[in-house]
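REQUEST FORM: STRUCTURE PREDICTION
Request ID: SP-0412
Submitted by: Lab K.M.
Chain count: 1
Length (residues): 220
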Amino acid sequence: MICLLCGNILKEALSFSSLLLLKKAESLACQGCFSLFERIGKDHCPSCFKNGVSSRCQDCQFWSKEGIEVEHRALFIYNQAMKDFFSRYKFEGDFLLRKVFTKILLQELKRYKGYQFVLIPLSPKRLSDRGFNQVEGLIKETGLPYLDILEKREEKASSSKSRSERLETELPFFVKRGIEIPKKVLLIDDIYTTGTTLNRVKSLIEAAGCQKVKTFSIVR
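STATUS: Completed
RESULT:
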């Protein structure tokens, strides 16, 4: 086995039983590469896990004024190693990299007992251009079930918009017709920046009848 990030041979060989059972929770990144991903520290915003603050951050205060109470959890800081990862995974199409975070996602998502997982979708054109939904790839690799209840209309990429432009844009997401809304949802995306996407979709799902919505991302 080789590290999916640097290409070096992994020192930790898969056990024979793991190979037979095709377990998906084995690490496919070497310790050196994985250590470059910086975990969010103990000092973080209690609402959105923004690193380096000990009280509710300005973003969460903004959302509270908008009538949205943020309940978000994230794992890693968006440092250079993580930027490089997502550049290769999302934009260069290295789909094998979906396996890098499988083990830690399995551990973390077990916290959400009783919650149905819902993933942030891509627009049809973006999905066609990229060939895969990067969030779906990460979660599907864990083997955990998730619901397909959301769709996204075509719009200008949010990464190219300012915060004010994102807030002023009509929400491009909508709940599919004829879908039964679960009582408790964990809404999952890959990256949380200001929370515009996740928190507006959270509000959308709550308005559709969901009693409790929390949000989760790999990166904050």
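NOTES: The first strand starts at residue 72 and ends at 76.
Reviewed by: T.R.
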